[in-house]
Amino acid sequence: MRVLVTGGAGFIGSALTRVLLEEGHDVTVLDNLSTGHRSAVPEGARFIEADLADADALPDALRGHDAVIHMAAFIEVARSVEEPVLFAENNIVNSVRLLEAMRRAGVRKIVFSSSATVYGVPERLPIRETDPLGVQSNPYGASKVATEAFCAVYNQLHGFDAIILRYFNPYGPGERHEPETHVVPNFVRAVLEKRPVPLYWKGETVRDFIYVDDLARAHTAVLGLSGLQVFNVGSETGTRMIDLLREIFRIVGYETPVDDLGERAGDVMATYAWSRKLAEATGWRAQVPLAEGLARTIEGFRERR
Question: Would 200 be classed as within a structural domain?
C-alpha cells in the first residue's frame, strides 16, 4: 500500500514509518520539521518538507496514495492553555485542510492519531471505546475531539474510511520533545543525570504505557479496515508512577532523590485501556512488557548522551 504519514519525522511518526517500510509499504513522510527531525526519517521513505496550512500544495503531495496516517499536531498541554488559537488552527483547521485535500486528490482512507485524553475523567476502568467522551480541561484535548468529529463527517459526507486510534501513554527510545512533558523520558533523563526526579501525587496516579513499536504496529494493523471505526491502543495494564520509577531504578542499578511536587490541578488519577476491540478486529496485541520497553528506552537515552 502507498501510505503518506503526516508528522512522520516525529517520535511516533518515525517509528511508524520504519514499521511500514519493514512491512513492505511504499511510504511518503510529510512534515514541516517544526518539532520533528529530518534525521529521524528512516532511509527508504520519500520526504516532503511542507506544512498542512499550505492547502494548495497538499493535493499534489497526496495524489497516488492509498491512505494517510495523520500524526501531525502540537501536543504540549500547557502550551495549548496559553495559546488556544494556535492549537485550534494547527490541530483542527489544518486537519480539515488535509481532509479536504484528500477529497480533492481522491484519497479516501485516513488513520487519525487521537488520544485517550478525549475520555476526560473516566467513568469506569478499564476505558472502553463505547464510554462517553468527557468534558475537556484543555485545548489540546478539545482539538482531538474536534478532529475525530471531522473525520466522522468526511466518512458520512464523502465515504472516507476513517480509523481513529486513541493512544494511551506512548514511550520508547528516540523521544526528544522540547519541552519534554511526558513522564517516561523525564524520569529517565533525571535518573541518568542523577537529578531529583519530579513526582506528583506521591506517585499514586495510574497510567497505561504502550511501547512505541507496539503503537506503530497498531497503525499498520488497521490499514485494511473500512468505514468509521474507533480503537483504544494501550497495554491494558495500569501502572502507578511510583512503580514506574522503581522499575527504572532497578534497571539502572541505583536510586536518585525524588522531588515531591505535591498535587497538580487537572490530573486524572487513573486511566488504562480496554484494547480487546482492536485485538478482535485485527489480531493486534501489545507485545513489549513494560520492563523490557523501559530497558530499551534507557539504553536509547544512554546512547544519545
Answer: no
Structural domain tally of the chain?
1
pLDDT tens, residue by residue, 61-74: 999 999 999 999 99
Is position 140 annotated as part of the catalytic site?
Answer: yes
Residues spanned by the domain of 216:
2-171+209-234
Distance CA 103, CA 266 (A): 38
Check pLDDT > 70 for residue 227: yes
SS3 of 177, please? Answer: coil
CATH of the domain at 62: 3.40.50.720
Name the active-site residue from 140, 167, 211, 272.
140
pLDDT tens digit string along 142-188? 999 999 999 999 999 999 999 999 999 999 998 876 766 789 999 99
Q: Which of 116, 141, 251, 237 is nearest to 187 (CA)?
A: 251
